[in-house]
């Protein structure tokens, strides 16, 4: 009998479940500090540059504060959709592909109408973007419901397919005809006002994608707490057999969760490509679809939690860029830092689900 | 199109398949022990960069391979600790391992971009390699190709005919029953995960030291995920893993050759074909039903006393 034992709690501790993300962030800062020291940086200076300076430094703050919403918007939008599926035990890990396809389809629709200045174009693009992401997610969803094919692998494989489609259209079908042969589409944000997604309030970083993210959070919150579908999702995740007896159709759940996640990821892609990125290029996607997985877990798969987690993760992006600029820290160090955060978070879950007992039990049963 | 030489094509198929074969074989053993580790891609890319860095610095590819295996195993121990001791969700933790490995590898690999690998001599087996047609196809490869085939046979033998293999399978089929019989479930799984990590590391190093051979960020390009798909395709059987890996290697080589030969199909569509074929194969397998998945695959084991 070992000295330290884990005893399963009857129900996960809610206090600890809320506390673990904070503990995980602190642990990551400590471990990250050690890593930064190994890379030859002052640990405290590095942590300050990442987490404090982007918000409060008088010189950089005014530039980087708006970036917080710009980066958090797509992360929150994608993570909110992913969390629905994760909660139900449906693993869509191909959000990056759905994000790309949303941008390609939505952006393509906009470019097809160039140079029309109709006010209907942007709404139409938003719709097309959501549809593009939805359709891409429907591939794993349909294969799962019809044939029982593993959705993890199919959704991930489709990321590579989407990346190749992106490479093809940005140097072919959607290439800017006035671009002197350079790859990449017309700049939607700069050269095509009817198809652009501008900053809504100056110097805040607020654009339509951020608005959509807030709406998605509210909808997801209502869905999870007040709607029958939310109940079905939670039941399917906690007790799949009970869910089946309660009449929850697994197929409907799969189609709904994957479809919603795909549509939201597609929207995120469309808003990105019409705003912050500006044009469809071979590398406009910056891995938000994968980082959103971390955001979903960091937010405890809860809409409000995801809101905060998205802002925090956005901060590590901006802080990372600042650290790159000021300290010459490699971009990969931040990626590693984000990965560590997920590890610590998953590791600390044990305290929410189990009680740690020290010493041998008096009565062994 | 005439420039494709069928003998060279089949010969390079074995080289192209070896990384996926190694990684898939490792993951199969992990899954046979009832653990789903989605971190294969992360461990592979880490193996690729570590193997390359050590290979370049020491001038020895053999040392590079050894260190890559160690690095893969070391990385897999993070996964083992969090899933087996701290009882976390295996899907999420495996994903985390992949993201972590991708970051780690690009951090380590920065100074090595654009350097050439030290080279890894081919075996040129006397007499056999001079056989027309069969010689160049089968007997002129580097030692890792033959080692990977040996490991297939060894894994098959160990799982089927030895006590250790039986225990490993018992732990994977029903961890509660195995625990009740007195087997150390967690210890067996730690060993299996370490083996899986080492094999993924070897596979990654084969990409950077032999296949390409240089370091490019993100160079495994989903090979780890394809390895996971091959385990499903193979219904958790070693010889079918070999078949699956060679099938995918064949498709990869064929599309690369078509690209080089200037085929009229655009490059992007050729590049996406291995991923599309993977999906197609997964669908065909699932129509037939997922036979052979270990009973406790992916489930958390907690000895309740």
TrEMBL record, chain B:
Keywords: Cell membrane, Membrane, Transmembrane, Transmembrane helix. This is ABC transporter permease. The keyword Cell cycle does not apply. It is found in: Cell membrane. It is a multi-pass membrane protein. The keyword Transmembrane applies. Coiled coil: none annotated. The chain crosses the membrane at residues 6-26, 38-56, 62-82, 94-113, 144-168, 188-209, 215-234, 241-260, 272-289. CDD domains: TM_PBP1_transp_TpRbsC_like.
């Amino acid at each position: 009998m070992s000295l330290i034992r884990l005893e399963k709690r009857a129900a996960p501790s809610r206090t600890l479940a809320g506390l673990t993300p904070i503990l995980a962030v602190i642990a990551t800062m400590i471990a990250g500090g050690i890593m930064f020291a190994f890379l030859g940086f002052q640990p405290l200076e590095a942590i300050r540059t990442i987490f404090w300076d982007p918000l409060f430094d008088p010189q950089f703050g005014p530039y980087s504060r708006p970036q917080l919403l710009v980066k958090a918007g797509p992360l929150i939008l994608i993570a909110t959709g992913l969390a629905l599926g994760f909660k139900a035990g449906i693993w869509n890990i191909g959000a990056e592909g759905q994000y790309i396809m949303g941008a390609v389809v939505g952006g393509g629709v906009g470019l097809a109408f160039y140079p029309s200045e109709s006010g209907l174009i942007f709404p139409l693009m938003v719709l097309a973007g959501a549809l593009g992401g939805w359709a891409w997610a429907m591939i794993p969803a349909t294969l799962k419901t019809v044939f029982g094919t593993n959705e993890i692998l199919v959704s991930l494989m489709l990321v590579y397919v989407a990346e190749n489609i992106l490479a093809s259209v940005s140097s072919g079908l959607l290439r800017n005809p006035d671009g002197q042969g350079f790859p990449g589409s017309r700049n939607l944000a700069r050269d095509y006002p009817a198809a652009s997604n501008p900053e809504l309030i100056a110097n805040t970083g607020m654009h339509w994608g951020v608005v959509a993210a807030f709406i998605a959070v509210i909808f997801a919150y209502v869905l999870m707490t007040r709607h029958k579908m939310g109940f079905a999702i939670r039941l399917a995740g906690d007790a799949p057999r009970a869910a089946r007896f309660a009449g929850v159709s697994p197929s409907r759940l799969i189609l709904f969760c994957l479809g919603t996640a795909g549509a939201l990821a597609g929207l995120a892609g469309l808003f990105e490509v019409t705003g912050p990125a500006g044009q469809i290029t071979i590398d406009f996607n910056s891995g938000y679809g994968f980082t959103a997985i971390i955001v979903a877990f960091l937010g405890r798969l809860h809409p409000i939690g995801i809101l905060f987690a998205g802002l925090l993760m956005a901060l590590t992006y901006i802080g990372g860029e600042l650290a790159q600029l000021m300290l010459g820290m490699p971009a990969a160090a931040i990626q590693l830092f984000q990965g560590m955060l997920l590890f610590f978070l998953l590791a600390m879950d044990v305290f929410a689900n189990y009680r740690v007992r020290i010493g041998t039990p008096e009565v062994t049963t | 199109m005439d420039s494709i030489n069928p003998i060279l094509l089949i010969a390079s198929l074995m080289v192209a398949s070896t990384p996926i074969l190694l990684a898939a074989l490792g993951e199969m053993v992990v899954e046979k022990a009832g653990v789903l580790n989605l971190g294969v891609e992360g461990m592979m890319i880490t193996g690729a960069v570590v193997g390359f860095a050590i290979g370049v610095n020491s001038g020895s590819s053999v040392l590079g391979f050894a260190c890559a295996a160690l690095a893969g195993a070391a990385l897999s121990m993070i996964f083992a600790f969090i899933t087996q001791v701290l009882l976390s969700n295996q899907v999420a933790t495996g994903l985390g391992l992949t993201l972590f490995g991708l970051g780690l590898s690009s951090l380590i690999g920065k100074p090595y971009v654009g350097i050439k690998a030290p080279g890894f001599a081919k075996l040129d087996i006397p007499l056999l390699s001079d056989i027309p047609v069969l010689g160049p196809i089968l007997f002129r490869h580097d030692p890792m190709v033959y080692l990977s085939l040996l490991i297939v046979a060894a894994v098959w033998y160990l799982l089927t005919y030895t006590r250790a293999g039986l225990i490993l399978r018992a732990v994977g089929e029903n961890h509660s029953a195995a625990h009740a019989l007195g087997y150390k479930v967690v210890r067996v799984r730690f060993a299996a995960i370490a083996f899986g990590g080492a094999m993924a590391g070897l596979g990654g190093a084969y990409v950077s030291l032999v296949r390409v051979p240089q370091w490019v960020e993100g160079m495994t390009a989903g090979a780890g995920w394809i390895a996971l798909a091959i385990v499903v395709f193979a219904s958790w059987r070693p010889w079918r893993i070999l078949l699956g890996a060679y099938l995918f290697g064949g498709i990869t080589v064929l599309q690369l050759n078509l690209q080089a030969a200037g085929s009229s199909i655009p490059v992007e569509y050729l590049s996406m074909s291995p991923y599309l074929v993977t999906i197609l194969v997964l669908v065909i397998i699932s129509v037939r039903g997922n036979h052979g998945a270990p009973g406790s695959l992916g489930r958390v084991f907690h000895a309740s006393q």
